[in-house]
Design goal:
Order of helices and strands: EEHEEHH
Shape: elongated
Strand order of the largest sheet: 1-2-4-3
CATH class: Alpha Beta
Number of helices: 3
Helix content: 40-55%
Structural class: alpha+beta
Number of domains: 1
Strand content: 15-25%
Number of strands: 4
Distance between the termini: 63 Å
CATH topology: GMP Synthetase, Chain A, domain 3
Radius of gyration: 19 Å
CATH architecture: 2-Layer Sandwich
Length: about 110
């Protein structure tokens, strides 16, 4: 099975593994490319999301755009993973910044 597949009418399908990438990361990545193409995200099966790309005009290099999307997807997934792993630290910093004397009150 190909990761990137050419479809009819100049469209492309990118298969994204569910076990690696969060749906939120895919949507965040997709949003950044909506100026140049139409994007549709759907579940293909239990293992893959399908990200469908259709160019808005004939000047769009869709292969290059999909490759850039893949890089953006990695960035977004790392952001989501770091946010989850650093959640308790982030909450502590916010609590100390906005409620600095709360822990010292009786």
């Amino acid at each position: 099975m190909k990761i990137i597949e050419k479809l009819e009418d100049g469209k492309l399908l990118l298969r994204v593994e569910k076990s690696i990438y969060r749906h939120d990361a895919i949507l965040s990545s997709a949003y950044k490319f909506t100026d140049d193409c139409y994007i549709h995200v759907d579940s293909i099966d239990s293992n893959y999301y399908g990200v469908y790309f259709a160019p808005k005009d004939s000047t769009v290099d869709l292969i290059s755009l999909v490759n850039n999307f893949c890089n953006e997807l990695i960035d977004e997934q790392i952001r989501f993973s770091l946010d989850i792993s650093n959640k308790s630290i982030k909450e502590l910093i916010i609590r100390k910044a906005f409620f600095p004397f709360q822990d010292h009150e009786e």
